[in-house]
Amino acid sequence: MTVCYTVILLLTGAVCAYHDYVNTLEPAARQLLDFKLDYPKPIGIMTTMAGKPVDIRETTTLNTDGLTSNEFFLDDVMHSVAERIPERAVHAKGTGAFGYFEVTHDVSEYTKADVFNGIGKRTPVAVRLSTGQGNKGGNDLAKEIKGFAIKFYTNEGNLDFLGLNVPVYLYTDPTMFSSFFHAFRRNPRTNLFDNTARWNIMILRPILLHALFWLFSDYGSPNGYRKMDGFPIHAYELSNKHGDRYFAKFNFRTEQGFENLTTDEVVTISGQDLDYATRDLYNNIALKNYPSWRIEMDVMTSHDITNVDFNPFDVTRLWKNGTYHTVQIGRLVLDRNPDNFFEAVELSAYNPGSLVPGINSPPDTIFKSRRLAYRDTQNYRLGINHKRINVNAPKYLKTYNRDGVPPVNDNMKDVPNYYPNSFSGPVPFIDESRPKERIIVFDSNAVDLESPSNFYRYILSDEGQKQRFIDNLVSSLISVVPEVREKGLKLLTLVDLELGTRVRAGVTAARRKIKDDPWMTIYH
Predict the structure, then answer these.
(1) 267: number of CA atoms within 13 Å, CB side?
(2) How many other CB atoms are there within 10 angstroms of residue 103's CB atom?
(3) Domain ranges of the chain
(4) Sheet containing 245-254: which strands, arranged edge to edge?
(5) Average pLDDT over every residue of 42-62
(6) Quick one: pLDDT at residue 24?
């Protein structure tokens, strides 16, 4: 009855008291009424894009002298047809929030980065959480690697960490990006996701297996964005004020309780709400259940990094236990939803190359390629001045780059527009504690199945996890053409004999069950 009464009030334009609906509508559903409670009267006179007040007779084009003389109409229709910007190629669907990072532990021994030094210091942050492969209208809970991007607005410039909800990346050779991305997107003829294409590229590039094993397991279905961890993937070079070097992998550990969903739970929730993770994040922040993550780093010394029996910069593998120690840094808290999604989330741009003194570039090839690719895609999506957009702008900016497609802000006014100059333009500084030596990593394209084997044997810690992992592999293999399916089963057997045997048995049984089902396509 209360819900019906609230709907009647909304339809009639009446304003009910806050307590009449606060317990019946979630924060996301009551946003419009919240706005009216904050602003009982219209917030101002409507204008054209040039600021001219709009006469009420200009809000209709019926029985008027002409469409082209109505500036309000021209603004409205021409802006509406151009209000979309290109969708991100990957991580297209996402949500975001603002908050702060607070230092809780002294890590000055490892890095001189101002953002991580000074217990109690708070730095504002923006965070974007996303799905990896689907389009903007996709399912939050689809079996996809999730994105976890953080922008720290530090006193030394923006620091961007671009991570995933799993601790490993997909491959080490940047030339694999395009083919992987295409194989896991829609078939160019059918416009459907194609398991044959996915398994085909996994067979031909087995390095993908480790990350995709995480995806096929429960880890591929976190229970919303609040209850998943985040991993910036790379091993960053750190330096302290004395120039000492360390290497660190950063981890963002959820404080809500790490929680994944089973495939059956995903199917049930997805049938009711494709925006489950987005809604969950928004509502919890609105209800002041502010999500938080503990930030830590796994550290190796310069001596450690050159004396381990594996490549510590290989983004497709985990560091071995006993080769590093873990150091606590602080907490990340999200306490504010964006006022406008497009301005704060869709226009946001996170670049792994945005680092600060004391946190230096990782030497791996994937990082080098990402800092190029992200810059290029953001110039394409948002324009050459995308770092001047509010959500991307640093606290302090003095540059010789100016002009181009807006926003240009003050465009550096009348500051000299060339460097070097003798007329008081901005000058560089000397970072005397920056390490002078470089580490060069020689990559190998040899495929090592140790990591996916260890995942099956040790990361999947109980039989329930293993069975659900196997069930997901079986489900993805059923519709794969025979030649590719057989090679996939042989590859799984090379990873682990038990795994290959159980998946083969599962595929055989599943195909037997659906053999006579006219709705299933079976390849003989």
Answers:
(1) 4
(2) 20
(3) 2-80, 94-165+222-392
(4) 157-164, 146-154, 122-131, 94-103, 325-336, 292-301, 245-254, 236-239, 359-360
(5) 87
(6) 65
* Host H or E run for residue 499: helix 497-514
Q: Give the torsion through C-alpha atoms of 103, 108, 114, 118, to 10 deg.
A: 40
- Predicted model pTM: 0.90
Tokens 């974007």: give the residue.
128
From the candidate CATH numbers 3.40.50, 3.40.10, 3.30.2000, 4.10.91, the one assigned to the domain spanning 2-80: 4.10.91
Length of the chain: 524
DSSP secondary structure of 2-21 = HHHHHHHHHHHT----HHHH
Output the average pLDDT for the chain.
Answer: 90
What average pLDDT score do residues 170-197 get? 91
Annotation-wise, does 276 bind a ligand?
no
DSSP state of 225: S
pLDDT greater than 60 at residue 520: no
Note the pLDDT tens digit of each residue in 355-395.
999 999 999 999 999 998 999 999 999 999 999 999 999 99
* Angle in degrees, CA 502, 503, 507, rounded to 5: 120
Looking at domain 94-165+222-392, its CATH architecture is: Beta Barrel (2.40)
Token pair in block for residue 154: 């530090």
Nearest-angstrom CA–CA distance, 70 and 74? 6
